[in-house]
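Z., the sequence and structure:
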Amino acid sequence: MFFQLLSIATNVWSKVWPIAIAILFFGFIIFIHEFGHFIFAKLFGVKVNEFALGMGPTILKKQGKVTKYALRLFPIGGFVSMEGEDEESEDENAFGKKKVWQRMIIVVAGATFNLILGVIICCFIVGSQEYVGTNRILNFYEGAVSSSQLQPDDKIIEIDGKKIFSDYDISFLMTRNNSGKYSFVVERNGEKLSLPEVNFSTKTGGNFAFDENAAISSLSAAITKQGLEEGDKVIKVNETEIASGEDLVLAINSDSDRIIDFTVIRNQGEVSVEKVKLNTVTVLDFVILGEEKNVFNVLSGGFKYAVSMSRMVYLSLFDLISGKYGFNEISGPIGTVSVITEVAQSSAAVADWSSMFMMMALITINIGLFNLLPIPALDGGRFFFMLVELVFRKPIPAKYENWIHAAGMILLLGFMAIVSFSDIWKLVSGIGFF
């Protein structure tokens, strides 16, 4: 009986601890954001009514001399409630009574603290590596396609018109264009050289997994929506007969546009699934030079990593708006905690927590930059109104600003509700709702 209970407890713990770590990581990032607002509000003498982590009903609270400190039920955010922030107040320590430049600093302090935390984590990541990555090519793998145009010791300056800050940029920028053809600018023998069409080989990736008999064992949400199902046994790709997993790989890779007509055995009958668009990935066929670590290149490398991640966030947002990515690629707090949980489990399995810290850096930078967008109800939206006040030396009437922020908050809450529903749907069904 004891060993049965111990086994049950062990199984429960194996599922609970990654979720607990995910919530703690996410909560720490939110704490840093709110602490930024809080510390500068206190520094400028603003009365802070409440400092809360989480949303919803209060679980724990402690009343300080002025401020109430609270932990709330749902670990999906937090807030700093300042006197006179969203309403008129005659208190001399009200937020609205402070100088506009002080209010501007308080408003952007949360996002700034997130970005600083991102830089610190990136420095830690770089410092934990054996070498500090550069943007210089060391050598090529055997059979490298790109070696016909690139050379060892080339310093990569740009890819597809985007400047390279760190080795992180190289892999990211080469995932945005899956054609296998890229525009490079390199420094070679002290001179800048433009290479408008550097070719790389490509392969399919992230679509589905299959066994040695070409039976599909798992699929991505995008491929499921196109008609393939788990358990399908592929017997034909276009006009090519398939007898094994090896045949399947060869047939798919021989199709240049990766738009495939499948014939599969499903429920003992033949089913045709036509024009399935497969994702492709570029085969990065060179090795980047690594430098011996020292204090200067670790700090510099960490800062450059943070800059690279910041640009990745904005480029990903642009890709989302332009339609390159669909709504299913967006994750809210629920989806974020789920992803962190998966990363925690995989990190623990291999005893390497670098992926976990990389995820944490990306999330804190993402939160910082998102909050700086000039959208009503976000820190960036409030900053914009204060900037108008600073320029024209006259504030926008409070009631109009409050209406705009209230409308923005309603839209954001609605958006978050949809995203949260999508997150839950993906967790339950394994595929996107939209």
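The chain has a mean pLDDT of 84. The domain at 132-201+283-292 is CATH 2.30.42.10 (Pdz3 Domain).

Let me know what you think.
H.
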